[in-house]
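Hypothesis: this fold can be encoded by more than one sequence.
Test: take the structure tokens below, design a sequence, compare later.
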């Protein structure tokens, strides 16, 4: 038998990643469990995760990659740890749990379960839902720059395709095959149940396009020597920008405009520093910071007039206040709906139940407690170490570093007014962006592409 062609094996592995990303994105547009489509993604994630981890083991040692793996391990293990039992004394440390125990005793319910999570079944579903995103992170961390570039291009092409689907949905009946969520009327959501999440995906794609387009000006291809062509990224980014207002997401529009103003200036600062003109870079950076402050001030004033936004503000405040009563354990991943319904203020009583805090940070604080903050701290530490390494050594493909940075900026900024990180499609894209950023920042100058 002849040994397998290593290039053919690599091509097959990369093709598997492209197909897996497309499947997770197309089927993961809802924050609610979707049944067999979710199960397929979670089962398929296992071999992707195993092969990705095996390929990572053959790579040179890197502190940046190790920190990234520690951070993703902390996130992955968090919901599993919440399935462990606590002693009655530890369980009662949270004031909300002590009050719950007293209420149950009054109605004659004895033997209260002492699982860390108040909703173990929902926490288990939450733990399994992380598998596709974790698999993509581990796999993308260990592939070459060209493959990472193609994965990012998919993160642009998929939101564009979803935008086109949203246009088609507007002219189709509610029960049309074009509408993946026939329980709701079509509303420019594309593959997403919530049009705001469509806006988030488009913002991420816009950030990637800005990085590719701005990074192409005045730069030649290292292999061919020809000038890089900025127009494909410019056209795709323009399409996404024009489509943002159609999602009816004010926050998405504001973030998109701010990114278009600030990102080119920030990229110019980086280029000035590399060319030895650091003083000009500082001036440009201060100018960009001033524009950001003005833009954010105007944006907050604009969004305050929205009655829906005011309701979301109350939700966020109520979730943050409720989180304090569940310290130090948190209520458990996936427990938001029943926990919030028990303690929400009367001003939020309405016909429909509230499915999320509309602020991912407040919801993580409520569901994960102190352990969740530690996991977030590890993620921030890994990103800070990666960016510092890149700043000092200037290695890797700078466009891909900016793709990861701007994409994450768009996602995390929108997460302050929505619950995008609860959607499998966007969770997968988020971990992919972080993996690409870490992988490129881990390179030294002689490894730049």
């Amino acid at each position: 038998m002849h040994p397998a062609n290593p290039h053919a094996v690599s091509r097959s592995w990369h093709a598997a990643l492209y197909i897996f990303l497309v499947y997770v994105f197309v089927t993961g547009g809802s924050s609610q469990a979707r049944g067999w489509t979710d199960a397929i993604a979670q089962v398929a994630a296992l071999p992707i995760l195993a092969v990705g981890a095996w390929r990572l083991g053959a790579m040179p040692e890197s502190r940046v990659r190790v920190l990234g793996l520690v951070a993703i391990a902390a996130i992955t293990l968090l919901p599993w740890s919440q399935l462990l039992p606590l002693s009655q004394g530890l369980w009662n440390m949270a004031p909300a749990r002590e009050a719950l125990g007293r209420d149950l005793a009054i109605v004659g319910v004895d033997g209260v379960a002492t699982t860390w999570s108040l909703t173990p079944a929902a926490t288990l579903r939450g733990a399994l839902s992380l598998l596709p995103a974790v698999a993509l992170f581990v796999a993308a961390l260990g592939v070459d720059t060209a493959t990472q570039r193609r994965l990012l291009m998919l993160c642009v092409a998929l939101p564009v395709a979803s935008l086109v689907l949203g246009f088609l949905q507007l002219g189709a009946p509610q029960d049309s095959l074009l509408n993946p969520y026939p329980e709701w009327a079509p509303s420019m959501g594309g593959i997403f149940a919530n049009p705001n999440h469509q806006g988030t995906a488009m913002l991420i794609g816009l950030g990637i396009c800005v990085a590719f387009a701005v990074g192409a000006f005045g730069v030649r291809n290292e292999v061919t020597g020809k000038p890089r062509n900025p127009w494909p990224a410019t056209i795709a980014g323009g399409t996404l920008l024009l489509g943002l207002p159609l999602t009816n997401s004010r926050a998405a529009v504001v973030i998109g405009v701010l990114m278009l103003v600030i990102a080119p200036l920030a990229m110019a600062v980086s280029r000035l520093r590399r060319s030895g003109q650091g003083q000009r870079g500082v001036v440009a950076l201060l100018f960009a910071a001033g524009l950001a402050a003005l833009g954010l001030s105007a944006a907050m004033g604009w969004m305050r007039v929205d009655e829906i936004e005011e309701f979301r503000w109350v939700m966020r405040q109520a979730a943050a206040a409720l989180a304090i009563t569940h310290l130090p354990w948190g209520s458990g991943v996936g427990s938001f709906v029943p926990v919030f319904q028990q303690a929400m203020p009367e001003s939020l009583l309405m016909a429909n139940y509230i499915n999320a805090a509309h602020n991912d940070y407040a919801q993580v604080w409520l569901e994960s407690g102190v352990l969740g903050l530690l996991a977030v701290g590890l993620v921030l530490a890994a990103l800070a170490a990666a960016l510092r390494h890149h700043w000092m050594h200037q290695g890797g493909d700078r466009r891909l570093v900016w793709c990861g940075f701007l994409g994450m900026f768009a996602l995390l900024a929108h997460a302050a007014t929505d619950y995008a990180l609860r959607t499998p499609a966007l969770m997968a894209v988020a971990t992919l962006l972080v993996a690409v950023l870490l992988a490129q920042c881990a390179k030294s100058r002689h490894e730049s592409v």
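Residues 360-393 form the longest helix (34 residues). The radius of gyration is 23 Å.
Hypothesis status: open.
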